[in-house]
Amino acid sequence: MSLDWLAAWSWSLDGLRDCIATGIQSVRDCDASALGTVACLLVLFVWYCYHVGREQPRPYISVNALMQGSSDASGLQNGFVYCQSPACVRCTHHEGLNQKLYHNLQEYAKRYSWSGMGRIHKGIREQGRYLNTRPSIQKPEVFFLPDLPTTPYFSRDAQRHDVELLERSFQTILCEFERLYKAFSNCSLPQGWKVNSSPSGGWFTFYLINQGVCVPRNCRKCPRTYRLLGSLRTCIGNNVFGNACISVLSPGTVITEHYGPTNIRIRCHLGLKTPSGCELVVGGEPQCWAEGRCLLFDDSFLHTAFHEGSAEDGPRVVFMVDLWHPNVAAAERQALDFIFAPGR
């Protein structure tokens, strides 16, 4: 009896051992299968990141082409010299521009989503009609987004966070400008400054961001101002409609009336030096700058600026930065950054 029980017990142990071994092997097989699946997914993810990262934007619209102006027979419009290149967006027919923009929109939608693209889609499909039938007071020269509230000037509440941040940084920006401006006494045009067309006087700009592209050499000369741009919630920094610069008007300067390229942005001027006799006129409405205060306006309206002060008054100086129009939705901003990306 005891031997039979011992044999049965031995058989049970062998069976238990076999069951345990089979279970362990099954777990190992399962783990190996799971690890293989994870490894395959990881390889696919790395390949996708590499593919997207190395993909270069197609050169349908270059920055320089996009922001150059259309020319008339003399090559002049609104007092500015415009290019004669057939590749220039402003110099081509709107039908060609619309096709390029629509291609960019389709590429964006395939990669991300059509959700929220109704207004942009409508604007691109009917861009020629919008630009040709706009009243003369507001005629953006490149892209018009329909159904945006329109007014020459905006209140501080339109982008309150960024306005208050800029005004708190007034002294910081002013100090960096004054260090830059000392170089004007040593040469006619210091490195980094740009001369703009004007019928009289002198209009100079020092860009940190020019048409969506950072200017590293200039940013290194104004490091605190450049860092400030990263703290602004609505700064346009990733498409050709975005700029940030110091703008200087010498006494006696008049800027010819002209239109900006689009209505999707608000142009913000922070007054750094604002002598008397200086005015900004947008849509026929005059305003004066004030030191340490922001002035917000839609530069797709016909606008001009002038400095009628004397040489003793010194220059008019503002820090200019382009902010998103408050009624452009987040999804639209992302799409417009893609469509109008520098170099696209």
TrEMBL record:
Residues 167-326 form the Aspartyl/asparaginy/proline hydroxylase domain. Belongs to the aspartyl/asparaginyl beta-hydroxylase family. Gene3D superfamilies: B-lactam Antibiotic, Isopenicillin N Synthase, Chain. This is Aspartate beta-hydroxylase domain-containing protein 2. Keywords: Dioxygenase, Oxidoreductase. It comes from the Eukaryota. InterPro entries: Asp/Arg/Pro-Hydrxlase (IPR007803), Asp/Asn_beta-hydroxylase (IPR051821), IPNS-like_sf (IPR027443). SUPFAM superfamilies: Clavaminate synthase-like. It holds the Pfam family Asp_Arg_Hydrox. PANTHER family: ASPARTATE BETA-HYDROXYLASE DOMAIN-CONTAINING PROTEIN 2 (PTHR46332:SF3).
